[in-house]
């Protein structure tokens, strides 16, 4: 089961409804400050409403300040009495509804900000699990109550004035009037099993990865993920060197050989400390990772996480969000990174939501589609643009030859424009010299 679609309304810089299908590889493009980050970070925000026991619809304390400051930052134009609407669709087969599966799991929630109390409440909630549906509508009583009153419609029956306590976006406790006056199914159990579980795990790797240190102490246990800034990458490698005899390091170096040839990663023990080094294949050169170019340090968390997933495939569905994986890398390496993600999508159940500025990254994906290596249905591309502060996203569809059905003006055209201007300047200069 996995998240296959999300729709957002009045969310951050998206005033109108934004509908995004999530495929095994989803790529988001756009100019600077267009709203790309707001789009790709949305599942990270939703995690706080589905992986929490907080009574708040979104437990924003789970997020760092680099993601979000306050709930009003989520509302378009920061409206003090505004609301956001979140629609999440899940499917066991990883595809949208079909004739064979007409009722994918669905969560549709509106979260209202109550400015005078500095809190939020789920004002409307619709859920569908199979052919079962439930609709909860807040009755606008005191939002500070432990269990505000809702009108619940379920199994074709309506139950007004029902006290409900939420855990994040979903009901946690429902005080039915009596055992006879309630639906014939356990809403709490169904929601927790099917909706919360279907959302799966969300990873996030931000655009600025931590610079490596010269030495590291061995962690008490190996972290399971590289972290939001890649901060755990070196610790994972040190733990693998000391405890797993370098199994993970060897897997990382397989990717290096395929994607960044000529170099490999190693760990050196220095007393009770460890250092991560970059070695040439012939062992003639060894450089502390802290002294290498920024690009290698920025890319290392990507290679480490891929190796972890290969050796220890995650249980359950995982959505990995990566912003600018190509940051600080030479353009020659951008295609290699695209190859790495395509391989990972084929080899594991991890799905990727990637924000990039790299034309080469996208061209490699289109090439692999044209070569028949990648099914175009497994890739979704969105272009985000901003008009006077209001963002929108346009789906760019690919055919089996890697061709696109739409392309925005002046995007990835800089090389052509500069080359044309260079040729024009050369012609003007020659004409001037000839006079």
Oligomeric organization of the protein chains: single chain
Range of helix content:
25-40%
Beta content: 25-35%
Largest sheet: 9 strands, antiparallel
Instruction: Assign an overall shape.
Output: globular
Note the run of SSEs as H and E. EEEHHEEEEEEEHEEHHEEEHEHEHEEH
Low-confidence stretches: 94-101
| Number of separate strands | 19
Span from first to last CA?
Answer: 72 Å
Mean pLDDT rating: 87
Task: Identify the strand order in the major beta sheet.
Answer: 2-1-4-5-6-7-8-9-10
Structural category is alpha+beta
Q: Total number of helical segments?
A: 9
Supply Rg.
Answer: 25 Å
Brief overview:
The protein is of the alpha+beta class. 27% of the residues lie in helices and 30% in strands. Strand 9 and strand 10 form a beta hairpin.
Structural account:
With 435 residues, the chain is α+β, with helices and mostly antiparallel strands. Among the domains are: 2-19 and 37-202, no CATH class; 206-315, no CATH class. Helices cover 27% and strands 30% of the residues. It has 9 helices and 19 strands. A 9-stranded antiparallel β-sheet has the order 2-1-4-5-6-7-8-9-10, covered by helices on one side. A hairpin with a 2-residue loop joins strand 13 (263-270) and strand 14 (273-280). Mean pLDDT is 87; it is low at 94-101.
């Amino acid at each position: 089961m996995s998240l296959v679609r999300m729709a957002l309304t009045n969310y951050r810089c998206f005033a109108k409804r934004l509908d995004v299908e999530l495929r095994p590889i989803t790529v988001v493009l756009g100019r600077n400050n267009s709203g790309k980050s707001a789009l790709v970070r949305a599942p990270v925000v939703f995690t706080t409403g589905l992986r929490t026991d907080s009574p708040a619809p979104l437990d924003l304390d789970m997020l760092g300040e680099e993601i979000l400051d306050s709930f009003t930052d989520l509302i378009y134009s920061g409206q003090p009495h505004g609301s956001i609407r979140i629609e999440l669709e899940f499917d066991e087969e990883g595809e949208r509804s079909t004739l064979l599966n007409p009722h994918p799991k669905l969560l549709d929630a509106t979260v209202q900000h109550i400015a005078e109390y500095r809190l939020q409440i789920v004002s409307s909630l619709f859920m569908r699990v199979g052919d079962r549906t439930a609709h909860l509508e807040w009755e606008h009583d005191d939002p500070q109550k432990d269990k505000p009153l809702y009108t619940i419609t379920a199994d074709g029956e309506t139950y007004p004035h029902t006290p409900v306590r939420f855990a994040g976006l979903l009901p946690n406790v429902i005080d039915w009037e009596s055992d006879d006056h309630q639906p014939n199914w356990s809403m709490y159990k169904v929601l927790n099993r099917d909706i919360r579980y279907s959302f799966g795990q969300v990873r996030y790797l931000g655009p600025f990865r931590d610079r490596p240190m010269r030495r590291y102490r061995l962690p008490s246990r190996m972290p399971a993920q590289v972290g939001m800034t890649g901060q755990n990458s070196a610790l994972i490698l040190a733990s693998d060197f000391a405890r797993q005899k370098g199994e993970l390091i060897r897997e990382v170096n397989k990717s290096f050989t395929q994607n960044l040839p000529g170099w490999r990663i190693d760990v050196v023990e220095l007393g009770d400390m460890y250092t991560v080094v970059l070695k040439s294949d012939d062992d003639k050169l060894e450089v502390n990772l802290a002294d290498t170019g920024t690009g290698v340090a920025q890319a290392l968390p990507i290679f480490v996480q891929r190796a972890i997933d290969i050796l220890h495939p995650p249980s359950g569905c995982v959505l990995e969000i990566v912003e600018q994986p190509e940051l600080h890398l030479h353009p020659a390496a951008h295609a290699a990174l695209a190859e790495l993600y395509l391989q990972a999508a084929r080899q594991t159940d991890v799905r990727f939501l990637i924000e990039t500025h790299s034309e080469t990254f996208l061209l490699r994906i289109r090439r692999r589609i044209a070569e028949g290596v990648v099914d175009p249905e497994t890739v979704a591309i969105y272009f985000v643009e901003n008009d006077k502060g209001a963002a929108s996203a346009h789906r760019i569809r690919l055919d089996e030859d890697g061709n696109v059905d739409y392309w925005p003006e002046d995007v990835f055209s800089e090389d052509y424009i500069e080359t044309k201007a260079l040729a024009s300047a050369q012609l003007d200069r020659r004409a001037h010299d000839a006079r």
